[in-house]
Fold this protein.
Amino acid sequence: MNKKQDKKLFYQRKNFWKEATPSTINKAFAFAEPYMDFLNQAKTVREAVAYTEALLKEHKFQSIGGKKGSRRLYQIFRGKTIAMAVLGSEPLSEGFNMVASHIDAPRVDLKQNPFYEDSSSGMACMRTHYYGGIKKYQWVSTPLALHGIVIRADGSKIDVSIGEKDDEPVFIIPDLLPHLARKEQYSKNLAEAIDASRMNLVFSGMMEPASEEKEAIKAYTLQLLKKQLKMEESDFISAELELVPATKARHSGFDSSMVVGYGQDDRVCAYAALRGLLDNLDGIPKRTMIVYFSDKEEVGSQGNTGAHSVFIQDFVAALLRANGEADGSANLRKTFINSQILSGDVTAAVDPNYPGVHERQNAVLFNHGVGLCKFTGSGGKAGCNDANAEFTAKVIRIFNQAGVFWQMGELGKVDEGGGGTIAYILANLGAEVIDCGTGLMGMHSLYELSSKADIYSTYCGYKAFLASDE
Ligand code: MN
Ligand code: MN
């Protein structure tokens, strides 16, 4: 055997920068620009839904149940989850191609009765309750913006966003100074050093001049809230107010080959899927294409907007109706069973500081393309969706035919930890499902890092999969 033949028998993943054409490299850089805009404009679930709807409308998608006859349809449920589709030429009950990702991200929420005047410090503060798997020490002494909605007693709604514009104030949960941290922090382990009950926000400090009032700072701030947001303290009780990093997504690295920003888990996959769909609108596809953004993934996917919700099944039933097909339970089950889904969620790329938590041969590396993940879970694959070999091979075939850079990777070394996605939830409905998404470093941190090569490859992979006839 000569050397050339010999090499052909080996599997080796490809480095995007090494193998991609100059024009493909340019496209990868260009793709990152609107993606970063999405990260900046869509820092919460509701904002991601609103951003997506605006883009869909630009591309002539119709809200389901509206005007009849459109093949481009979408549905929003409770402002926090959205599904969008392009109807194919073949009956939908023959199966659809879907990319499903989530648009919630770890954050710090205000409690329902958050506001208090702290007598020890003489400041007004807000109590918080974190959401999702955060490392609490990352959220102290960092600029935070307050986003969310307030529903007033009369039912009217206020959209809140404070701290994104340069002239707006930002918020801080102050960390303890190192000089005095010996007992409170340095003697404890990392998980306990920041106590969740001490993640209170320093909210305000002024009072009316010459005020003799009890809780004068709180009283002054409530007046400001009334004036500026037309809300009262009792309106906090039903509000959804979230603290997210106030910083913007930025190019990263000396070569600008990366993106650093908050919420890339999982908005990188959501954006890649959305663009994959919108760039597939020439002609009528054979199979119906669906993109689905779920909520609550970071806390278990339950609730009426999580992937466990009936919403996605109801959406597919509505599509069946719109396509003139039976929308009953049997046909809906048949539709899911005939369908194929990429569970678009991020995975952990090898981190130069902690290579030991990965088994490199089976881990995702930056710059080597979108990461397929046959199974997630922990220990002995507990809780996993183990994608079937036939489907895994089919997805690889679709990617190879489209020239997509891809790699196979598991989430960390065996028994090192683990994690899950919504893959198993959709697989429970009978569809073929595999996890497929971008590798990140520093996942769940305020500054998640991704490679522009991998972001672009994720988009190319989703685009090819959605349009596949196979
Ligand atoms: Mn995720
Ligand atoms: Mn996550």
Q: What stands out?
A: The two ends are 35 Å apart (CA to CA). The domain at 107-245 is CATH 2.30.250.10 (Aminopeptidase i, Domain 2). The pocket of manganese (II) ion (ligand 2) is lined by residues 265, 298, 444 (CB under 6 Å). Residues 30 and 470 are 30 Å apart (CA to CA).
